[in-house]
Structure formats: C-alpha cells, structure tokens
Specification:
single chain; mainly alpha; 67 residues
C-alpha cells in the first residue's frame, strides 16, 4: 500500500508522529500554530494534516525571505 493511501485512510496521527519524528504534543502545537480551525484539525485525515503542515511551512519560508 502506498504511503499516500495509508495516510489518507488514517485519522489517529500515529503515522505522522512516526514520519515527522515528533511527539503528539509537538504535532498538535505545530498544527495549531498554522492557524487551522479546530474543526479541521479534529476531522482531517493524516494526509490532509501533512499537506496543511507543508503549506504552512512554504508560507513561512516565503514570509521569512521577504523580511
């Protein structure tokens, strides 16, 4: 099974914790710092969360370059 398919079918954040090598508290903090709604955080699958973190990081890089 492809990683993308596996992440899309999971909602427990276990795969993300292992993939990103962070603990649950740090993952929750990272997601909340990206200004996503609590509803999104609660209902999104692991792939959607990973995409959101990636998008947030890309925005951070752009903003950091413009300072």
């Amino acid at each position: 099974m492809r990683l993308e398919t596996l992440l899309a079918s999971r909602f427990d954040r276990e795969m993300l914790i292992a993939l990103l090598q962070v603990d649950k508290i740090d993952l929750d903090l990272l997601i909340s710092e990206c200004n996503y709604s609590t509803d999104f955080i609660r209902t999104a699958n692991d792939l959607q969360i990973l995409d959101a973190i990636s998008e947030c990081y890309e925005e951070y890089k752009i903003l950091s370059r413009n300072r």
